[in-house]
Every structure is written in structure tokens, then in C-alpha cells.
Design brief:
3 domains; SH3 type barrels; 16 strands; Elongation Factor Tu (Ef-tu), domain 3; alpha+beta
Length: 360
């Protein structure tokens, strides 16, 4: 229970269906830890997993008459999500902390706790669907009925064992239907807005967060300053650090030319930020590492799929093939814009999630 309308409605639905429900909230980050430090805001609102969300989840549990517990995983969250997030940016990559959190915490540790307390399954408010395919003997992760709320991009790392014990009751519903159901169940937070930000990065200002986090940890921000160069190696300026940039970025480059420039590549080893025109942002191929397959055991031969390279990206037709060493080569039918290292590439067969991996 995250304290939002989605997971709260799920709890109410399961109670109404006669299930024995236990509410669990994961305490992952101390929202006041960096407040006011190094330019960070004194107060933060609009983020998931805040203390206010914990209070809201507890209030819903009391309203439903179910047991409720807060499970503290701050130490593991910092180790498996926050520190990798900082390290990725400092190496010139653009990470997705929500996917790391789902893979390493929410669907790992929640299942551990569920087993410890004797629960049969874990239910969440994610918009996705789980089905068992009798013909293959595999559990399938599928896109929800409401594609505008599709969260399967962040769930590509789920294992067969985790899927077998996971429920997504909102998979066939739209957000307006969820809010209406919350009203019918008398939930006080039926109109609560959705959280929009990364839980530990207020305002989406990851640069300021990195500065404050390293300072609080007694660490120095490494010197990642270097050259701004064109694709043919011409030096056209200097930059203050590769962590200030991401592929596709246009603003804040610090150089003026007769035509718009975009970040087309970040070379972390040489501390170079490569810039070019919009047409240079397009590529037909990418390599995905640390791949997790869901609907199939693996790839014995090339497979036709649609591939999503960021959360709001429309899956694009492509062919995937194994190149060994837990690596997949993705070849798109048409070039895709701003393929970004550190993001996920998720493979779809219609509504079915074939699998996914991390863009190299």
C-alpha cells in the first residue's frame, strides 16, 4: 500500500471479494534527510512513498479494518537504488530508479515478507495484467486495458516465480473507474492526485540531489568536466560535468551555433559530450544487457517484436536476436530518436511482455 488511490482501491476490492488482506508499506527513503541542504527544498510534496503517504495508507487500512505494517528497507533502497542512480549519472548514463526499485525491492522483498507472514500472494496497484499460458506453461505479463496508464515498462524484470504470486487487480480498469470505485468504498483519498516525481529527487532536479547526497555522505563530487565535441571530433566548447547531460538534451549546452544542437552521445571514459543536429539523434540499433525474458525461455533465433525505449515511447517494430553473453541486439525497422544508455528496452508481442534489458 503506497498511500495512493490505486493500491488503496486494490485493498478495498480484495476485502470486498472476501480475501484475508494485510496492508504493507515499504519505508524506503527518509524524505527529510536532505531537506534544505545544498539548495534542496525544505518541504517536498507530490512524491510517492512520503510520510504523508504512509499516514494515508494506515488510514485506509483502519477504514477497511485490516492489519497494517510498515516495513523498513531504507538501507537496502539506498544500496540498490540510490547509489546506483548516482553512479550511473556520474558515468554518463541515464538510469531508471523505478525499475531498479521494482526489481530489487518491491517484487523481491515484498514476496519475502509475504512468505514470512504466510500470505499466498502480493497484490499491488500497478496497471498491468498477469495470466498463465497453459500452452507454454509460463506466466505472462501483459499490458493493461488502459494503455495510458501502462506500467509494464517498469516491470520487465519480474521472474516467473514472482509473477506466479502477484496480483494486479486494476489491469482491466481505467483510472476514472478506479477513482469511482474508491468513492463507492468510501475511501477518503479517492481524489488524491497521482505522484509524479522520483521519490528521492524533489522537483526532478537530479543534479542538485547528487550534489547534496554526496556532500551529506562526506564524498566529493568527482571531476567529470571535459570537452563538448561534434560527431567528427571537433572541439566546440567545454562542459562542467557529464552528469549534467542526457542524450537528446538541447538546453544548457553552453554553446551557440547557427542551428540547434542536441546531445547525441556521452563518452564517460573520456568525459566528452558529443553534440550534433536532430538527425544525428536517430539510430536503428541498440544493445540490451542483463536481459530478463518472461514469455519465452530465451532466444534460439531472431524474433519479431515491438520495442519500447522509454516509458512514454510508442513500441516500435523491430527484430531482436541473441549475440551471446546475456546481450540482445535490437534492430528497428525505422530509426528511433534518442536511444539512451541506462534506460530500459522492453520487448512486446502485442500486449504480451516478451522481456527486456538495459540499454548499453
Amino acid at each position: 500500500m503506497s498511500g495512493g488511490v490505486d493500491s488503496s482501491t486494490v485493498a478495498a476490492m480484495l476485502c470486498a471479494d472476501g480475501h484475508n488482506v494485510i496492508g504493507l508499506t515499504m519505508q524506503l527513503w527518509n524524505q527529510r534527510r536532505l531537506a534544505g541542504r545544498d539548495g534542496m527544498p525544505e518541504q517536498v510534496t507530490g512524491r510517492c512513498c512520503s510520510l504523508d503517504d504512509v499516514y494515508d495508507a494506515r488510514r485506509v487500512a483502519q477504514h477497511l479494518g485490516i492489519p497494517y505494517y510498515v516495513v523498513n528497507h531504507e538501507e537496502r533502497f539506498e544500496r540498490d537504488v540510490v547509489r546506483p542512480f548516482v553512479a550511473e549519472y556520474l558515468s554518463g548514463r541515464t538510469p531508471i530508479p523505478c525499475s531498479l526499485c521494482n526489481n530489487h525491492l518491491k517484487f523481491d522483498q515484498l514476496h519475502v515478507v509475504a512468505r514470512q507472514i504466510g500470505a499466498d500472494a502480493v497484490a499491488t496497484g500497478h496497471y498491468a495484467r498477469v495470466e498463465f499460458d497453459d500452452s507454454t506453461g509460463r506466466w505472462l505479463l501483459k499490458r493493461p486495458a488502459d494503455n495510458s496508464k501502462d506500467q509494464t515498462y517498469f516491470l520487465f524484470g519480474l521472474t516467473q516465480e514472482q509473477l506466479s504470486r502477484t496480483l494486479f487487480p486494476l489491469g482491466e480498469m481505467t483510472k476514472p473507474e478506479v477513482r469511482e470505485l474508491a468513492r463507492k468504498h468510501g475511501l477518503a483519498l479517492a481524489e488524491k492526485p497521482d505522484s509524479q516525481e522520483i521519490c528521492f529527487v524533489p522537483g526532478g532536479d537530479y543534479k542538485r540531489f547528487i550534489d547534496a547526497y554526496l556532500a551529506e555522505s562526506g564524498e566529493f563530487l568527482p571531476d567529470t568536466a571535459g570537452e563538448l565535441v561534434t560527431a567528427n571530433g571537433e572541439v566546440i566548447g567545454e562542459h562542467s560535468g557529464i552528469h549534467n547531460f542526457t542524450v537528446g538534451q538541447r538546453k544548457g549546452l553552453g554553446v551557440a551555433t547557427g542551428s540547434p544542437l542536441y546531445v547525441i552521445q556521452i563518452n564517460g571514459a573520456e568525459k566528452k559530450v558529443v553534440v550534433g543536429g536532430d538527425e544525428q539523434l536517430y539510430s536503428r540499433t541498440l544493445r540490451a544487457m542483463r536481459v530478463n525474458f518472461i514469455s519465452v525461455d530465451g532466444l534460439d533465433e531472431p524474433m519479431r517484436v515491438a520495442v519500447k525505449i522509454r516509458h512514454r515511447h510508442e513500441p516500435a517494430p523491430a527484430t531482436i536476436e541473441s549475440t551471446g553473453n546475456d546481450e540482445i541486439l535490437v534492430t528497428f525497422d525505422q530509426p528511433q530518436r534518442a536511444i539512451t544508455p541506462g534506460q530500459a528496452a522492453v520487448f512486446y508481442d502485442g500486449d504480451i511482455v516478451v522481456g527486456g534489458g538495459w540499454i548499453a
